[in-house]
């Protein structure tokens, strides 16, 4: 027996119920969409806030360099560098000798190669009283960050120059011999302390050397050097190592001991340095 077909009023009621169900489902979808949108906005704001905080913190590290930062007391050499005379003690000089300036970053691989090849030459002529060595420990590869390795190492060297001046050159050699990769965080403060102690620096001085007292000064040393056009290369860049012999930039092969020695001998003889090509410079 066939069922009784729904009445017109029943069909209308069913239609209303179906429409209500569809509307309820639509409202659920819209509510879900609003929640997702709101959550996305919140996440986005958190990310933006984090980025702003990162930029501010990074900017504070890089920008807040004190233009009147104190230099180490041993920075009595030409252009504010740390001078070394015959006895190898920071803050001393050789009367009547030509001046050899080195602008070096303790994180620069080419600077380490320069030191490895030419420390013997520099020591020989310095100890003979024929040159005064003036070291500029600059923070170039830090990008202006006072907590980066270039800044920390330069500051530690400057502190040792002031407080254990007869150990500064040995400490410098230790920093280059144990140079970390150019990328990365560099040596830790504890590792720098150990290197200083290994170079004969008293323990109390070694521990205090990582206080970053001269980080601002090391960054300023770089900024001042980079502003001197006579120190720039053919592309108007300041690179490391930069060596100045008797007032003339050495543009020869910084990792050739023979070439560098010849330039020193020429300058000592009164003829000035005779640089060749501008090679082996770190950006």
TrEMBL record:
GO terms for molecular function: isomerase activity. Signal peptide: none annotated. Keywords: Isomerase, Membrane, Transmembrane, Transmembrane helix. The chain crosses the membrane at residues 36-57. It holds the Pfam family Thioredoxin_4. SUPFAM superfamilies: Thioredoxin-like. InterPro entries: Thioredoxin-like_fold (IPR012336), Thioredoxin-like_sf (IPR036249). Residues 98-265 form the Thioredoxin-like fold domain. Gene3D superfamilies: Glutaredoxin. This is Protein-disulfide isomerase. It comes from Rarobacter faecitabidus.
């Amino acid at each position: 027996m066939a069922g009784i077909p729904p009445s017109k009023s029943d069909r209308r009621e069913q239609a209303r119920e179906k429409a209500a169900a569809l509307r309820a489902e639509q409202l659920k979808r819209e509510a879900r969409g609003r929640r997702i949108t709101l959550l996305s906005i919140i996440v986005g704001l958190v990310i933006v806030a984090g980025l702003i905080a990162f930029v501010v913190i990074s900017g504070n590290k890089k920008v807040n360099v004190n233009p009147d930062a104190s230099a180490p007391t041993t920075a009595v050499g030409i252009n504010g560098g740390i001078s070394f005379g015959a006895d190898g003690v920071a803050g001393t000089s050789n009367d009547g000798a030509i001046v050899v300036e080195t602008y070096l970053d303790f994180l620069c691989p080419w600077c380490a190669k320069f030191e490895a090849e030419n420390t013997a030459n520099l020591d020989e002529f310095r100890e003979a009283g024929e040159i005064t060595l003036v070291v500029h420990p600059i923070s170039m590869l830090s990008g202006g960050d006072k907590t980066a390795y270039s800044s920390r190492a330069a500051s530690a060297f400057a502190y040792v120059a002031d407080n254990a001046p007869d150990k500064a050159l040995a400490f410098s050699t230790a920093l280059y011999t144990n140079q970390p990769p150019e990328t990365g965080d560099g040596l830790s403060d504890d590792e720098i302390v150990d290197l200083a102690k290994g170079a004969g620096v008293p323990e109390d001085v070694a521990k205090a050397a990582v206080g970053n007292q001269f980080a601002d000064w090391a960054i300023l040393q770089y900024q001042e050097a980079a502003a001197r056009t006579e120190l720039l290369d053919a592309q108007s860049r300041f690179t490391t190592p930069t060596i100045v012999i008797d007032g003339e930039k050495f543009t020869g092969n910084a990792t050739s001991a023979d070439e560098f020695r010849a330039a020193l001998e020429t300058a000592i003889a009164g003829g000035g340095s005779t640089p060749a090509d501008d090679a082996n410079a770190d950006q």
